Model the fold of this input.
Amino acid sequence: MTRHRGTFKPEMTEPYEISRSRVENFIKCPACFWMDRVKGIKLPETPQFLLNSATDRLLKKDFDKYRKLQKPHPLMIRHGLGHLVPYGHEDFEKWTQSTQLGLRTTFEPANFIFGGGLDDVWHDPVKDELFVVDYKSTAGGKSEDETKLKPISLDGPWKGGLKRQMDMYQWILRQNGFKVNPTGYFLYVNGDQHFQNGMLVEDLDMAMMNFDVQLISYDADDSWVPDTLMQIKACLHQAECPEHADTGFGQREDEPCHNNRFLQGVKQHNLLF
Done:
């Protein structure tokens, strides 16, 4: 079967493949999404940081040990989640493959294949209920009394995308027939750049960095997902480019679309070739 992905082709009858990250792009700015998916104009994107990917892989290794044993990881026990175990579903490894939309569902009203790749799933074997887990890594500031690292919060304007990510993964799992608890977990490792006396091991060509670990619960809401997918369908069939977002960008997400600002600057200074 021919795959319909990349630039949208309205004449194709095969389901159009759309990733969780592209849905987020649409939410951020419909115009940038339209330029990318309809016209094939590749706008600049934030590169993926390899250090973040490395911490994700290491955390997965931690939980994979206990996935094989079907026992809770000690961290889960410390946080009162000893009744859960890392999920050992036969398709779990496939679900983690984001570039292949490893966790996916068909959304027939829009003729989409919608998916992504999640980090982890924990399982309550008594209730046969799933909990979506997302790994995150950062290097934050000091607490107010400057005696420890500042606790991580899900509050703040730019954290909305993290929450929507959890919403979408829960929704996809439910479409696949799984019972999913609305509570999800963000597992943060927070690099200590303030209280470590350096990182080099003096007698080895080796460095070490300490991380604080924080498990944050989040009560997800996936009710917005189907309507948003239908809005994306309408956007893909538009002949004209939608308006660029007038907010949602910058550190506080109160600035207009940065790509539009760049394009307007090019146009203003007659720099089009």
Q: What stands out?
A: Strands lie at 16-19, 85-86, 103-107, 112-116, 120-124, 129-138, 183-191, 200-201, 206-207, 211-219. Residues 50-69 form the longest helix (20 residues). The two ends are 40 Å apart (CA to CA). Residues 48-225 form one domain.
